[in-house]
Specification:
single chain, alpha+beta, Jelly Rolls, Arc Repressor Mutant, subunit A, 4-stranded antiparallel sheet, 10 helices, 9 strands, globular, Helix-turn-helix domain-containing protein, AraC-bd, RmlC-like_jellyroll, Homeodomain-like_sf
Length: about 250
């Protein structure tokens, strides 16, 4: 895409599964939108928005009267800094503060009356991204990036904390405050997300995928996926391929 697309949208009571090569932000105006973003469930409603990073699979549905601001943003740093976008991978839902809500109210009123110029939309986007970036701790981004880069081997919380320049106890507090989970839980979730992506997109054996994503063996990955998703890795792969076939024939 060549630029930012911002518009008011309403959704039907149905589930649509898809992904796209640009970032998308969905902000509430009226009603609620249920979403699943790479197996993370949540709801966009009063006080909560979602940042869907480029390439992430997501499904959504809404009930009753609803209206949302939807911003489609190119992946270039000029629109959303890469480092900031990365912090939303795995943690897409965010709390809307008073400053951010003011920007939402302004844009909803303007979009309801008229088409905005490219300059006005770009100015709004800059203010909005700035309001979001103030709510994302750079040390969390560093920790998550370190986890992704080293997920195939055994890494401890002390090593992750050292990469961020904080103590293990401070790292734990940052994760709890920002993401609502411990660093260990985030690492386990990240490894499982990577396994899902490899199952869906490659023909690697399940044992190889387990090794590449830091699981001790195939059985460990199977146990983790059963606990999280209620299915085995083999079933997940079959379901993912069926979903791709269904989208292709739709």
């Amino acid at each position: 895409m060549n630029g930012i697309c911002v518009e008011l949208r309403s959704y039907a009571d149905q589930v649509n599964l898809h992904r796209h090569d640009y970032h998308q932000i969905v902000l509430p105006c009226r009603g609620a939108l249920d979403l699943e973003v790479e197996h993370r469930n949540g709801q966009v409603s009063q006080g909560v928005g979602v940042f869907i990073a480029a390439g992430e699979t997501h499904a959504f549905s809404a009930r009753g009267k609803n209206r949302f601001i939807v911003a489609d943003l190119p992946v270039e740093d000029a629109f959303v800094p890469t480092g900031m976008a990365d912090t939303f991978v795995g943690t897409p839902f965010f709390t809307i503060g008073a400053d951010t809500q003011g920007l939402i109210d302004f844009l909803e009123a303007r979009l309801a009356r008229e088409d905005l110029t490219t300059e006005a939309i770009s100015a709004w986007n800059g203010l909005f991204i700035s309001s979001l970036s103030h709510r994302r701790d750079g040390r969390i981004h560093t920790a998550l990036s370190f986890m992704r880069a080293h997920s195939s081997r055994s890494i401890g919380i002390a090593e992750i904390a050292s990469a961020c320049g904080v103590s293990p106890s401070r790292l734990h507090a940052l994760f709890k405050q920002t993401l609502g989970e411990s660093p260990h839980a985030a690492l386990s979730r990240l490894r499982l997300d990577q396994a899902r992506q490899l199952l869906a997109a490659t023909d690697l054996s399940i044992a190889e995928i387990a090794a590449r994503t830091g699981h001790t063996d195939q059985s460990a990955l199977t146990r983790r996926m059963r606990l999280s998703d209620g299915i085995t890795p083999g079933q997940y792969r079959r379901n993912a391929r069926l979903a791709v076939t269904a989208r292709g024939s739709a």
